[in-house]
Design brief:
Elements lengths: L1 E5 L8 H9 L2 E5 L2 H7 L6 E4 L6 H7 L4 E3 L7 H11 L4 E5 L6 H14 L4 E5 L3 E6 L2 E5 L5 E6 L2 E8 L5 E7 L5 E5 L4 E7 L3 E6 L1
Parallel strand pairs: 1-2, 1-5, 2-3, 3-4, 5-6
Antiparallel strand pairs: 6-7, 7-14, 8-13, 9-12, 9-14, 10-11, 10-13
């Protein structure tokens, strides 16, 4: 089952995001993400979290039968919602409203891709960028000339990149030493391989 999760970072829907949310087999709001959905007239199937951000008016409009309280403070509302999606049988998750606003929240949300990406196919979507975790190897169709960034979640022992202006052949990447920021596609398909770590591929939509 495909799911869409709307988090609570500052966010404005664009037409494709509305379409994906409307067609989702499971539409979930991470707490205040329900406010974003209400702005475009979409009721989530469930609202999950500690419920300190969803407005009282939106909560009443959605209905208490769709509210899933998860009050623990050991996980963020987005992580709680990812866990709930797994409980409901989701196999793919598109995450919206996860990267704006506070930088510490954005970094935590990016880290969730590495934390859960082997248990379900998940990606974060912005209007012009999709962010996809890579655990072993992957290939992506991209327009020639497009900007592609490949960032390690911490340290990656060996990384291979092909189809890009600046390829790699088994070299290490680390956030504190070297990354592959603002690379450029020179072929219509980009190939990424990693050993000993997790990469995030930043790709054009």
């Amino acid at each position: 089952m495909d799911a869409v999760i709307v988090a609570n970072a500052p966010f404005r829907f664009w037409p494709e995001a509305v379409r994906r949310a409307r067609q989702a087999g499971l539409l979930l709001a991470a707490d205040g993400g329900a406010n974003h959905l209400a702005n475009v007239g979409l009721r989530p199937h469930f609202v999950v979290g500690d419920l300190d951000s969803v407005s009282p008016e939106v909560r009443a409009w959605i209905g208490e039968e769709r509210v899933v309280p998860r009050p623990d403070q050991d996980h963020t509302d987005l992580e709680k919602t990812l866990l709930f999606a797994l409980e409901q049988g989701a196999s793919r998750v598109l995450i919206l409203a996860a990267t704006g606003g506070r930088l510490d929240h954005a970094l935590e949300n990016l880290g969730l891709l590495g934390r859960y990406g082997e248990r379900l196919a998940c990606e974060i979507r912005e209007e012009k960028t999709r962010i996809v975790p890579v655990f072993s190897q992957a290939s992506f169709a991209v327009p020639v000339g497009a900007t592609v960034s490949v960032m390690p979640l911490g340290h990656c022992a060996r990384v291979w990149l092909s189809g890009l202006a600046w390829p790699l052949a088994g070299e290490p990447l680390s956030l504190v030493s070297r990354t592959s920021l603002s690379n450029r596609a020179v072929e219509p398909e980009v190939h990424v391989k990693v050993e000993g770590g997790v990469l995030l591929a930043f790709l054009p939509c």
